[in-house]
Design brief:
Chain lengths: 251, 251
DNA sequence: GGTGTTTATCGTCAAAGAGACGACTATGAT
DNA sequence: ATCATAGTCGTCTCTTTGACGATAAACACC
């Protein structure tokens, strides 16, 4: 027995600060982008960072993430089991707790992943600090030694979030979270192309998504906003898992 | 600006206790089992609970989980990116932080998922408390209103861990973590059958796993420990993701 | 030794799905 | 009118799957 009798007494153990950080992704101009905010205080003052903040005393983790999301974007989302509401999807990503990840004290960050459609305001307001949508390729591209690093371990968190999003749109209907309420098959295809960084065959893609039951439901209208022949409009169907999955072309 | 200037000052925010809990799964006698320990102190004194404990001051989350695993089973594992070592796989599962999940104070638990081969000792020693392998079906089965509940929110954590394991053996080579270093195709098939709770066609399964490059590598020998015709022995190959995945029969 | 039982392994066949790509349609731009 | 742009429907082939027959090599029993 190498443990003190107080092993089960939480007050006997050193306190941690708990934060939530948000990997908020969207697709803008055919590129996968993440929301960054500029830090106004040390440490990492002036660095770009993922939006986030401390979990409040009476607040659950998902609640805190949902609140942060609303503060940054005005979007509403529920963090429960990957629920989509008011256009935003929010789910827990992973927790980062390296002892030295914050130089001031022991901080454990519960990162969340949020997927949102392209938002009307390029730089979401509601906060005096600077904020921007940064193309993920500029932040994580290999060999980009010249880029300015993100604060803390946020580059790692971002990479994990992007990887989660990339793999999750394979076997779930989550890609629709990047689209407005009504969208065309072509718009959905461009989401996949942007997130995966590939080009997909429009005909096979069309056959696949329209043939997967519950993925898309026709909403009746058509649109011509992409140019070319008018395209049928769809809404996200009730399906959450895709069986069989969308296949990411092997690179 | 609804935030205090101390928004970025961790010491200005209320402290949390941070624990790691372990969903440690194995396959025993064709059944998926989880390791439970009996609580010796309030709250939930006498209840069965997932093994776990507080994260120490200088310790990372994965480190803490790895230490707990070693304390409970003697197994070594590294939590880094799903690395398998000395027969055990360990990865972060999810974090649970409902404000009232521990009646004493605010505790955030970073749950980890561990997969191990059937261990020699039925009741792992190293700890004075009681411990047992409980079949998952007895803990989570639907409609079992008579079963004794687990401590805290551990039933939820266990359910999430089991679901993660079930889905992860579909598209990764993780099922081999349930097997000893050398194993036969039939033994691997029984792992899938136990975890998924289905029966699989031995011929199609054999074709599938031996045809997936990097999944299995022949180790040269054969064994007859299962009775019947001697079976070829394999070791886990280097592959971590299976493409195409194993398909769970639709129920 | 036979015979049955058990498990492993190979083969065959039909159905489903994926990738490649031709053809046609309906819009706007020039 | 012609062209460019996107969308949609089909066709063909190849791969993979699921169902299942057949054979092989051990052991248990008579």
């Amino acid at each position: 027995m190498i443990y003190p009798m107080s092993r089960y007494d939480p007050s006997a153990f050193p306190p941690f600060a708990v934060t939530v950080d948000l990997v908020l992704l969207t697709v803008r101009e055919h590129e996968l982008c993440a929301l960054l905010v500029r830090r106004g205080e040390p440490p990492f003052q002036g660095y770009w960072a993922l939006p986030g903040g401390f979990v409040r005393p009476g607040e659950g983790l998902g609640e805190a993430a949902s609140r942060e999301l609303a503060e940054e974007t005005g979007l509403r989302a529920h963090a429960s089991p990957g629920q989509v509401m008011a256009g935003a999807h929010l789910e827990q990503l992973a927790t980062y707790g390296h002892p030295q990840r914050d130089p001031r004290m022991r901080v454990v960050s519960v990162a969340h992943l949020a997927l949102a459609p392209d938002l009307p305001t390029p730089k979401p307001g509601g906060d005096a600090r600077g904020a921007r949508w940064a193309p993920v390729s500029e932040l994580l591209g290999p060999g980009r030694t010249d880029r300015e690093p993100l604060a803390f371990d946020h580059e790692l968190i971002l990479a994990d979030g992007v990887e989660r999003a990339r793999s999750k749109i394979e076997y779930s209907a989550l890609a629709t979270a990047f689209c407005p309420e009504e969208f065309t098959v072509g718009e959905l295809r461009r989401v996949y192309e942007a997130v995966w960084g590939v080009v997909l065959d429009p005909r096979n893609f069309h056959r696949k998504v329209t043939g997967t039951p519950g993925f898309l439901v026709p909403s009746g209208g058509t649109t011509t906003r992409q140019g070319g022949r008018p395209a049928q409009l769809f809404k996200a169907g009730g399906a959450t898992v895709l069986n069989p999955p969308m296949l990411r072309p092997e690179s």
